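[Meeting: bench + compute handoff]

Bench side (C.D.) handed over the final construct sequence. Compute side (W.E.) agreed to return the predicted structure before the next meeting so the bench team could plan truncations. Sequence as handed over:
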Amino acid sequence: MIQKTYKAYLFDFDYTLADSSRGIVMCFRNVLAMHGHDGISDEAIKRTIGKTLEESFTILTGIDDKETLAAYRKEYVAQADKLMTANTVLFPETLDVLSKLKEKGAKIGIISTKYRYRIMELLGKKLPEGFLDIIVGGEDVKTPKPSPEGLMFAISHLGLDKNDVLYCGDSTVDAETALNAGVDFAGVLHGMTTRCELEAYPHVKIMDSLNVII
């Protein structure tokens, strides 16, 4: 259990609240195959989750030409429109944890590099309308995580002091985001990032499950 009670709990999405790795791998595989990129493992793809699509494609292919990366991103989004929601599942404890935090009067939000509409497409089927107080997606910021822009926007929008906010994520990108924003961070080991990697950053807790928050 985390000892401090916060006024707001803000979460990353992929590998924090939901496992969309199956859909993500499928989308990357389809785009990579279109352009003859082979020999890239599922694990390598999963290790890029949490980064922007352009960053991920650069890591996976070595390509850094902006126009090419923009074209790959567009193709990925088209694949995701067909494949992502059906191949994304919430972690078993997600709905229970979010509901209990809400019952305690906390604000709940999501800060993700994933597009907001995609998050809403999935969560709209799982949560009551208006349950989430804010969603900041990749299309809502000029600079993606680990820039603190999205996190700071959410805190300002909710009218809170950053000392009253906990940001929870699964990756070093999330840990850096919290650090850059001056916000408390809790890491969850749902993804590909190890405990040791997360413990290298300031944190209030590194958790095997979101249940530890409550």
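W.E. noted at the follow-up: The CA atoms of residues 148 and 181 lie 5 Å apart. C.D. will use this when planning the next construct.
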